Amino acid sequence: MLRLTLKNLAGNRVRFALTAFAVVLAVSFVVSSFVLTDGLRQQFDGLSAEIVEGTDLMVRPVDPDFGETPNLPDSLVAEAAATDGVVAAAPVVGAPDNAIRPIPPDGELIGTNGPPQIAVNWVDDPALSSFTLVEGRAPTADGEFAMDVDAASTHGFSLGGTYDVLTPTGTVAETLTGLTRFGADNATLGATLMQFPTASLQRLTGETGVDSVAIALADGADRGAVQAALASLAPGTEVVDNATLLSEQQDGFNQGISIMGNVLLGFAAVSLFVSIFIIYNTFAIVLSQRTRELGLLRLVGADPRQIRRSVLGEALVIGIVSSLLGIGAGALVAQALIALFDALGASLPDMALVISARTVIVALVVGIGATMVWPSARPARRPGWPPSWPCVTVPPPAPGPVRSAWPSAR
Amino acid sequence: MSRSTTVPAPIVAAARASVGPEPIAAAAAAVGATKVYGKGDTVVRALDGVDVTFDKGRMTAIMGPSGSGKSTLMHCLAGLDQLTSGRVVIGSTDLTQLNERQLTQLRRDRIGFIFQAFNLIPTLSAAENIRLPMDLAGTTPDMRWVEHVIATVGLGDRSRHRPSELSGGQQQRVAVARALASRPEIVFADEPTGNLDSRTGAEILGFMARAVVELGQTIVMVTHDPVAASYADRVVFLADGRLRGQLDHPTADTVLDAMRNLGQ
Fold it and tell me: What ipTM score was computed for the predicted complex, to two decimals?
């Protein structure tokens, strides 16, 4: 009977290819959404790690219940640096995303719908800075700024050039003094990262004070004691450690990734729904075409259970094969989506295709489930199915009543 | 295929003689077999109290005009259809006492079928089709016997081919081989040559006759063709659901005569 199942599959390749195609389609959507979100999550986790790397502690204002988070006074940086156990303290100042927009040489502004344009203060201390100078020198005076090396080359900014920059306080001329690298390999995901001298950035944004203070601990310092000492420096502040910063950073990214993943899963659900209908119809057609064949099997002694098992077996094989194909196709779709992101300007360097065990399991459950729904829910389970022998015999010369009254044709 | 495959009457007679003096037992029988379709004014009595026995190790032809009930009789004998009243016996088993599952097993283990057409599963090779009933039963085929059967029907080198790669006559030979391969107690053939030209039909009938003589097979064949009936050892005639006579050692001419008499 197993042989018959497999032979039937092999003998009706085209017929089953249609079913398999529907399943592959649905599974590949599911898989691609998982692969993509897993990959992005991995990517952004790496990004998060690079952002918070080197910062052992962070002094920041406590979020008030109402209104904007207040800035911390500039003087806090020096006070924090003077605290026992602190080896370095650096101010953290950032402009809101896309608040500061350099105008490229071609005059065409960088769009704000894609990866953001982010301006932060330049920090000299390499332990506390996410940036490393690649070429030129650090921006030190008003009218000077640095930019990450990939954004500079993408948008046509060249070292030493002077460019108009749109800021909340008006358009200013700024000279590009340095090209920098973010983290280990400038994995900016397409963002434009700019660094300005701290005072200069404060002036450009029209804000006073610092957003927070990044702290590097001395070797062997008592983290808890330092944390308490820093917290007592100014009212309304909290001191968080690296692990907290990392998880907050990751959560922030993950929310966005989850939204995108859910949109893709929505597509997957729709295609799955459509696939189930295609499968349903294909099996219905196939089985009615095979009524004679199944009747013949009944005649030569297959009991209904054997025939049901054979039909279910066919569905199972299709489900397994097309699920596996769907996993492969899903990985390709994910890769295509990554290429699409690239084309839209978000660079996802070295983004790995993450095919987790969960992805494979979900793909198999979805694929096999979708294929088995119909044959297991409908005729293969119905009593009296498959049809019995009458369909096999050629209509006898005897007229109507003989045929119409034959039993077990239910 | 040469005419040598048809069996001359003397050989049949000799084969019979070798069985011995004891009376030939019945392989199947119908007792008071009645089958009624419909109700009230539209009632049709397809079988109307048929008493008939089919001898073991012989080929019996059931003949009759259209609507005579010959196919109904065969279907009831094979457990494919149920009688309204009366009994049908295969060997010592009363089919009217069996449920659907038992009937399925009976068909699988004790009965072989040959039909006019569509006897084979298209995706299986000829050899696989022949072994199918035994595969379904989960029994190991007696390969020497199966090969003997394949050789007997002259299939040999074509046993690995799919039905679509075989001619109509070859397909029917596969069907005959399948019906014989599991050594069923009885083989039912429903117009086995109805779809074949007369030469190919003669070959198939020759194989069936050989199976009776050489393999001791019991065959019950429904046909409306006097030539096909002449290959049988005995012909029973049905008309209007009733048994109207029988003929031993028929020839095409004697069968034709009997049919003419029936018509009067």
Answer: 0.75
